[in-house]
Amino acid sequence: MKGLLSFLACLSIISCQNNHTIVQNLDIQGHRGCRGLLPENTIEGFINAVDLGVTNLELDVVISKDSQVVVSHEPFFNHEITTHPEGIEITAENATDFNIYEMTYNEVKRYDVGSKGNPKFPIQSKIKTYKPTLSALIDTVEQYISLKNLPAVSYNIEIKYDKKEENKYHPTAEVFTKLVYDLIITKGIKERCNVQCFDEKPLNILHKMDASIATAFLVGDTGNVTEKLAKLDYKPNIYSPHFRLVDAALVHYCHENKIKIIPWTVNDEKDITNIIMLGVDGIISDYPDKVIEIYEGIRPQK
């Protein structure tokens, strides 16, 4: 902590010359809740992210056999974080056999996705937990916020769609998108959410379905931003590239075209600072606590 405070003190001097580029209200998004601290895409992780003070909960969704929208990054059980309810070993080789799209949600809920921890995140707390439905997650978060009288949060919902996996690991783009859309409307979070995807198809479908829902186009590889955006039938609200792709020119392009730019997944303190200083509109991080502390140290004064 002392090292971080010294780091911030140095940055405060630098920011005096550059704070005209820093946005006044950075959208601080907890990636999969707060994956660096608690098991990913779990109610416990999202509640902790709320307590930390994030403005947005970033999450992933897949579909179960009984058409439940399940909060999960993979459409199967990741061997690194999962304990099978019957003690069967889940390995890198057989993990895809545990296909959520072939399970009812009652079956999905039996798998423990927190007790093993995550080898990529050594300080992550180990707790016995499960993959929630998106419906249950929203209900729990909204009730918690109301009970604690906390500021409202937004939801950044990623549709985990791959055209090569239709009807194998998830339904068609049309069905998948409609299930997510219906839940957003039912839960009344339309004004506090956006839907994101790496594939343009679900985004184009959603925009035709309801152009008033904010969308984010995820990008993970290099290439011309204009050509990438041309895959969409419309201009998205948010362009969301891997943070290594972000430079001043890209930020300028997005802002000139009235598109917010929110990069992922920014975890290192130096990277967090550099990205904030470029004037992005938000940051997705496994360690939202770091982002909050750094941003508070360099944000422009009102």
CATH architecture: Alpha-Beta Barrel
Terminal-residue CA separation = 27 Å
* Sequence stretches where pLDDT stays below 50 over 5 or more residues: 8-20
Helical proportion, percent range: 25-40%
Name the overall outline: globular
| Tally of strands | 9
Strand content: 5-15%
Question: What is the CATH domain class?
Answer: Alpha Beta
Mean pLDDT, as a whole number? Answer: 94
Structurally, the number of domains stands at: 1
Question: How would you characterize the overall build of this protein?
Answer:
The chain has 302 residues and is of the alpha/beta class. It has one domain (2-298): TIM Barrel, CATH 3.20.20.190. It has 10 helices and 9 strands. Strands 1, 2, 3, 4, 5, 6, 7, 8 and 9 form a 9-stranded mixed β-sheet that branches. Strand 5, helix 6 (200-209) and strand 6 (214-219) form a beta-alpha-beta unit. The two termini are 27 Å apart. Residues 8-20 have low confidence and may be disordered.
Question: What features would you highlight for this structure?
Answer:
TIM Barrel, 14% strand, 9-stranded mixed β-sheet, single chain, 9 strands, alpha/beta, 302 residues, 10 helices
